[in-house]
Amino acid sequence: MPMKSVLEVLTSTTEYFKTKGVESPRLNMEHLLAHILGKKSRMELYLEFDRPLGDKELDALRELVKKRGQGVPLQHLLGTTEFHGRTFLTDARALIPRPETEHFVELLLKLELPADARCLDVGTGSGVIALTLAAERPAAAVQAVDRSPNALGLARENADKLGLAERVEFLQGDLFAPCPGPYDLIAANLPYVPVGDIAGLSREVQCDPMIALDGGQDGLEIVARCVAQAPEKLASEGWLGLEIGHDQAPRVREMLAAAGYADIRVVQDFQEFDRFLFARRPH
Fold first, then answer.
1. How far apart are CA 274 and CA 73, in angstroms?
2. What's 203's domain CATH number?
3. Side by side, which strands form the sheet with 168-172?
4. How many structural domains comprise the chain?
5. pTM surpassing 0.90?
6. Is 82 helix (H, G, I), strand (E, B) or coil?
7. What is the largest CA-CA distance in the chain?
8. 275: which residues sit within 8 A by CB, 6+ positions away?
9. Per the CB 3.0–4.6 Å rule, which of 18, 90, 127, 277 could disulfide with 81?
């Protein structure tokens, strides 16, 4: 029996992914095949369409294809994800970083802050926000907190991988409990999904830890506590930045206004949803 080529496997498996409801089936398959073949980029496959695949490569690929067809996220199968130009370890211990969070970090980096700003990432998960801030702002003092020891384990592994272990201090606890403050910036991408909506999320999202999704009955229980507690930890003129659900901005803006925050700003994501809010410490 003739061996199958890279292009033949790409084509047949892309069709299989379509039957399994995998979003962007061709792209998914390119990433998996590049991973199996040890390529730095999926684009390298285009130079090797005629290359035959051996039994060992095909066996390894079949296992990944099966899991992806069952809804296991691509990032979990690859073990990594790209975020703001860096490669982060990704697995089931923490939320898979989303494009919206990358946009959030870009907005955080544009805020007017002291060069040696004291920054806190609340609900750090895999550490992408805290570690990106530390990498992009070498003089900043960065701390990150999460209530999940599993997530913090992953975040510390990412810090080691990126050479930032000495730059970011990781703390375990609920919201601000273990955090000394004061901070010039508090960034928070907290769980914001109403608990009743979680069962209706995609297979891939349901592979994220429940603790990273569950925002209580209305989705905003943890966000509301953050808004209420943050002023005690913010320095004078300090900023609070929040990433929230696509339909939650009016309610969160009301929370911030009621708590006396100044300079409240709502910013849209690239899909034109009101996704991010920024506000200064109440006077």
1. 26
2. 3.40.50.150
3. 168-172, 141-146, 118-122, 183-188, 234-243, 274-280, 262-268
4. 2
5. yes
6. strand
7. 76
8. 100, 103, 104, 243, 244, 246, 249, 267, 268, 269
9. 90
Q: Which structural domain, as residue segments, surrounds residue 147?
A: 92-280
Residue 185 and residue 256 share a domain: yes
Q: What share of the chain is helix, strand, coil (3-state, %, to 5)?
A: 45, 20, 35
**pLDDT tens-digit series, residues 170-224:** 999 999 999 998 999 999 999 999 999 999 999 999 899 999 999 999 999 999 9
Residues 138 and 275 in one domain: yes
Question: Per-residue pLDDT tens for 35-77?
Answer: 999 888 888 888 888 888 888 989 999 999 999 999 999 999 9
Neighbours of 206 (CB within 10 A): 14
- The closest of 249, 248, 247, 244 to 264, measured between CA atoms, is 249
- Given the structure tokens 């808004």, which residue do they identify? 227
Name which of 68, 67, 82 is nearest 24 in CA terms.
68
